[in-house]
């Protein structure tokens, strides 16, 4: 059967009655009237570039957005560049992909990649604001108190508390009689600690600064004890920072002095891949191996005295009513917030590292 075209009486065209064919024709018309607008916000982890490509490709496939291979390749090249750019600025940089209809007379979609970065202080405060109580609690660390008790005359033994935060260790040490210098990156914590020091008359000096800033220096050869109980898991993003930290510690400690710090270490038989290392930084649980630690200590006047489980030690020695420090703390400290291993297995954990200045 044919149908006469009124505009061209002599021409004839086939009549289409197949419902499936007609439905596809209508869907084509329908899709042309769609306006696809959206934004995808992701952490920027360069080692996961292949995963991003799959995720973004699947998104546009689900939206029935046609892509030429050349267009996909161009999109992925921009993606790779932005991932590297963002991570170089901060492990907590966010990658944003916006897409919307192209401006007429063009057709299709316009894509825009951008990177948004907060300062380390802003990122940390944002993370802490998600928790109703301090992540490490308000109780001084049992390991810190154990080391301090070995010092016979606290009044002559100055202590450096790096990343003092709420002051839970600073205050306990000052109450023992130690002159304590508190180095704190986050202004609200430093201001509060300064106020407490002024109100109580405790021997506390608060300095605003970042231990990982090469320009931040503390008095040379001043301290018999240095502690960094929270700083390295949160802000020691790579091996260079770990080395810088240890070099600075050697500068400020007296001969025979001690440094106690917490650090996430992989188990002996586990070598983290680049994806895991980068994700550990994003997850506020910067991960190292014992080989990394040994390399960072190489050539420095430091002797490793002990390497023990943070959780096991603190759970055993803290008052029962103060454990755990935070309801989510154990998952974080045992590495299960990053690597979802079974409860009876682990690939990484928070460790207490004690070293002596030779």
TrEMBL record:
UniProt keyword annotations, A-Z: Methyltransferase, Transferase
Coiled coil: none
Biological processes, Gene Ontology terms: methylation
Annotated Pfam families: Methyltransf_25 (PF13649)
Domain Methyltransferase: 159-257
Superkingdom of the organism of origin: Bacteria
GO MF, one annotated term: methyltransferase activity
Listed Gene3D superfamilies: Vaccinia Virus protein VP39
Protein name as catalogued: Protein-L-isoaspartate carboxylmethyltransferase
Lineage: Bacteria, Bacillati, Cyanobacteriota, Cyanophyceae, Oscillatoriophycideae
């Amino acid at each position: 059967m044919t149908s006469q075209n009124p505009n061209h009486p002599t021409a004839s065209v086939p009549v289409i009655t197949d419902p499936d064919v007609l439905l596809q024709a209508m869907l084509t018309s329908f899709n042309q009237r769609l306006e696809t607008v959206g934004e995808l916000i992701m952490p920027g982890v360069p080692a996961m570039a292949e995963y991003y490509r799959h995720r973004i490709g699947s998104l546009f496939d689900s939206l029935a957005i046609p892509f030429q291979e050349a267009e996909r390749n161009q999109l992925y090249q921009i993606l790779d560049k932005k991932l590297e750019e963002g991570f170089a600025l901060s492990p907590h940089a966010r990658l944003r992909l916006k897409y919307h209809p192209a401006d007429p007379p063009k057709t299709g979609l316009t894509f825009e990649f951008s990177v948004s970065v907060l300062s380390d202080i802003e990122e940390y405060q944002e993370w802490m604001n998600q928790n109703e109580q301090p992540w490490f609690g308000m109780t001084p660390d049992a390991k810190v108190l154990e080391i301090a008790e070995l010092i016979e005359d606290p009044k002559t033994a100055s202590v450096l508390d790096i990343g003092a935060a709420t002051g839970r260790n600073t205050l306990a040490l000052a109450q023992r009689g130690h002159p304590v210098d508190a180095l704190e990156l986050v202004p609200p914590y430093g201001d509060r600690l300064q106020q407490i020091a002024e109100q109580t008359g405790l021997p506390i000096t608060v300095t605003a600064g970042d231990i990982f800033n090469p320009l931040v220096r503390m008095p040379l050869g001043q301290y018999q004890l240095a502690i960094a109980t929270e700083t390295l898991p949160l802000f020691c993003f790579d091996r260079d920072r770990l080395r810088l930290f240890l070099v600075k510690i050697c500068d400020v400690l007296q001969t025979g002095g001690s440094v106690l710090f917490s650090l996430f270490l992989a188990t002996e038989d586990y070598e983290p891949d680049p994806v895991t290392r980068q994700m550990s930084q994003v997850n506020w649980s910067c991960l190292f191996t014992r080989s990394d630690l040994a390399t960072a200590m190489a050539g420095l006047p430091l002797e490793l005295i002990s390497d023990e489980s943070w959780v096991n030690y603190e759970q055993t020695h803290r008052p029962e009513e103060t454990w755990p420090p935070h309801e989510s703390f154990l998952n974080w400290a045992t590495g299960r917030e990053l690597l979802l291993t079974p409860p009876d297995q682990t690939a990484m954990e928070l460790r207490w590292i004690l070293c002596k200045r030779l």
